[in-house]
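User: I'm putting together a teaching handout on how multi-component assemblies are represented. Below are the sequence lines for each component of a complex, exactly as they appear in our records. Could you produce the 3D structure of the whole assembly as structure tokens, so the students can see both representations side by side? Please keep the chain order the same as the input.
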Amino acid sequence: MRNVVGAALGFLLSSSLCAQDWPGWRGAGHDGKASGFQAPASWPEELRRGWQVEVGEGHASPALADGRYFLHVRQGDSEVALCLDAATGKELWREALEVKYDPPPDAKSYGKGPFASPLVAGGRVYTFGIKSTLSCLDARTGKLLWRADFKDRFPKPEAEWGTAASPVLVDGKVVVHVGGGPGKHRDGKGRGGVVALDAADGTVKWAWEGDCAGSATPVPVTVGGVPQLVTQTESLAVGLSPADGKLLWELEFKSQYNQNAVTPVVLGDLAILSGYQMGVRAYRIGGPKPEPAWQTREASMFMSSPILKGDRLYGFSEMGSGQFFCLDAKSSETMWTGEARQGTNAALVDAGAVLLGLVTPGPTDRKPSHLVVFGATDKEYEEKARYKVSDGPAFAHPVLSGKTIAIKDRTKFALWTLP
Amino acid sequence: MNHPLRAGILAAAALLAACGGIPAGPAEPAADPGDWPEWGRTPAKNMSSGATGLPFSMDPGRVRPDGSVDLANAKNVLWAVTMGSQTYGNPAISRGRIFVGTNNEGRGDPRFKGDYSLLRCLDAATGKEIWTLTVPKLGTGKVGDWEFLGICSHPTVVGDRVYILTNRCEVMCLDFNGLADGNQGDQDEAQYMSYVGTTPGKPVEVKPTDADILWRYNMIEELAIFQHNITAGSPLVIGDVLYCPTSNGVTYDHTDLPSPKAPVLIALDRKAAERPGVKPSEILLGEEASQISKRIFHGAWTGPCWGKVRGKDALLFPGPDGFLYAFDPRPVKDADGFGLFPELWRYDCNPPDYRFRNGDPTKPIQYAVGPEGPSEIMATPVFYKGRVYAAIGQDPEHRARPGNLSCVDADTGKKVWDYRIDGTMSTCAIVDDLVYVPDLTGRIYCFDAATGKLQWKHDTQAEVWSSPLVADGKVYVGNKDGVLTIFRTDLMKKLADELGGDLEAKVQGKRLLLRKEGKTVREIPAEQAPGYFQKIRFPNEIHCSPIVAQGVLYVATFRHLFAIKEAAK
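Assistant: Of course. Below is the structure of the complete assembly, with chains in the same order as your input.
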């Protein structure tokens, strides 16, 4: 009976999205594709800034659904879910939860979060705070429907560097990665895991407690007809069955500082992974044991997740102190690399014929962030436009819809428009 | 309560007393100038060598899926061996043996599962393992023994003795020959390797390929050191005296200084340390008493160089408070009988506006909070022709990088010149009166050593954590992208002389552009440019400094060690 309800709810949740929505981490398909954006034939000299709102701190990417932006920010000692009218920026509701948090010294420059993007589905908003508190709110009113903090399951629910993996929805279940170690490969004890909760009431449906959370978000994919949730943990890459959390495969994937942060992309049976100083590596994941396919050090991603277009992989490499790149995803051949020293991170969005990268300096640098538009071509790096969109760092993904681009920097949220 | 390791030391001392101690052995052979037995090769700590015939071009091969290096298509590579997953140790080489710190990842020794710190002794000709020191972690996590960092100390090899600072905040002396000539000195290796944090475990079976620990001095127990993140630094050996930085520092959250009275520099009697029954307090010859710890910004990870002040031997110490200190290395006993180094002078390597807003002493700028503010000295100073070259910088994680390269008159402690580069952790290389130093942002600078005039600079485009090597008319610099940049120093000097210096050497496509005040003043065409510079991409980041020994260039990346020789393959 419960399965039937779950399936029905899954249908309901997925059917409520409209083409222009950006309902969570990296959009509707968690692949960075902005389907409802009307990219101009030629890019203007400048973008026009519409409304701008001081919303609060954090680097959580905003979500967009049904004409409303949903943000998760920090104001003082509270994490606040905010709903803004997309046309005016007017606040429609807020829901605050006191979350005191002291980041580890080496993560202080990134602030106290939150980092995880809210998820909007079926008239509900799911926020996932810096200490892994998962809240389900009514998207219309902001009313709290249920909340889970995982303290009974994991002694330290937040990831080591603060929770950053975003929630995703799979078959009526909200899936989150919880727990900050010490991780499986640091002292042999798994103290975190991927947990699936019933989207309706927060009941835990399954949990895989194989390793702590890095900062990567699990993505639902299908490989050889078999559904999988693929993610990077603190020190592994894993494929889990979305139905019951069963481990389908795992491989060691350890980047320094236990901080795997890149959302995997999958091409056929090829899972493409990266991490701090790990280069880019591809593994065949169709069988019980992943097989290495290729690896390259021509590019390496730290926090930026790449975009797959056909068999071309576009991304922002940490090499060269930050540069865009394009690889052949089947062979690892470098098609091009852009100019070096672009910045610390670029949040990438696929807008069809062009890609947009919100390029930010380091978290405490007093330098501007730029929205960079470049062609989705494997011939060469072809920059179409570059707009200064903030005087400081901006790590969140830009949200593209119609002729608008919404950008959250460290504290402000602004709507930019195209002619 | 007695500390387990101190108990270990005392037990070892008792055993030494019982077994008669360490044989005196033959007199120590003089260091071979063709070797690289300590950080900077000699006590002056200048990252240079008189080696010749070094390779200019090379191809390090490809990494196989199992992590080993396939040299089938490599060029000029003698051998490559796989290290742990993080190699910060920097190799030292003496009499055909390499000593390099790394971690335990991928080692496959069933006795040691999980995180340990290693010092590996390899045969320089083949890269094959001779022995390995295995040091358990302290169990403090990032506070004082950060996970997976391995041994970060650069060893110093003198005769048959290898000196390092372990991740457990110990000064350790090892037998060059390992256990091949029997277990000498400390007899408790089996117990030592068994520790889980500070708790002894079941003694480990000792194998002939384990290290032979002769003695160890626990700085936590003896000096109340609170090491920040990790213990690092290189011991300096002068005669029978071992000068060591202590790694004393702030708490993990940077809000407190637990041991403000502990020294940041000590001297141990390395010969007395080998005497049977000697107490740890009896080998401590001296310590700085300039109250440097009270002013520590972060951690005291760097040791001194050796030079002359007004004709007399001097320790030139890089203060973790941003001051360069000159000490008389001969300790003078105070009223309580403690040996203290007389301070000869101190020089603030931070310009006044780094410490105070607009230089106003009433407006101090907090350390490492914003992009401005003072920095410490993390690079080893270099003594060259009566002057000391010291640069300031900070932990790369701080992202605040005020930097400054200072040239100080060693006799007076006064500034000769300084130049504002970005923060750096790199020790200078000084050859033919030219100073080479990279900064953390990845730019290499070449200055006139006498005047501080910029000759040329080059952007490697990724962070440089290591130090340069200048030898055989070339400067070698490795960066975080794993790119080894090599410039011909003679050709670059010629260009700088012709064009009046202050050049930026910019690689554009395959050409080399010499730019001055934003304009290209000379272009080296694509067909000639490879004679001026080379960029070699290694398979992993390079955080260790390239070194040379007996005509072979050694490049340690994070995961491999490469031996590179002209016409090797």
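A couple of points students might notice: Residues 4-19 of chain B form the longest helix (16 residues). Confidence is low (pLDDT under 50) at residues 1-25 of chain B.
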